[in-house]
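Trying the structure run again after the queue cleared.
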Amino acid sequence: VTVGENTIVGAQSFVNKNLPPNEVWAGSPARFIMSLEDYLEKLKKRKKKEEKFCAEELLLKEPDLNPDVM
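Done. Tokens:
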């Protein structure tokens, strides 16, 4: 069994066949979840969402930092 380059395998997954490169696999037995490209895009969107949430939370706590109030 070989795992392709840049392939992500979920924790405690049971890999019973060769996995191609640039994919995400998980489960028991391991099954295809998504392409690595789709996974990275999903992470970027999540990061943007978290950054937006943190900024909004900061403005609620520190209204003096809000440029709209100045």
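Strands lie at 8-9, 23-26, 31-35. Worth checking whether this holds up in the mutant runs.
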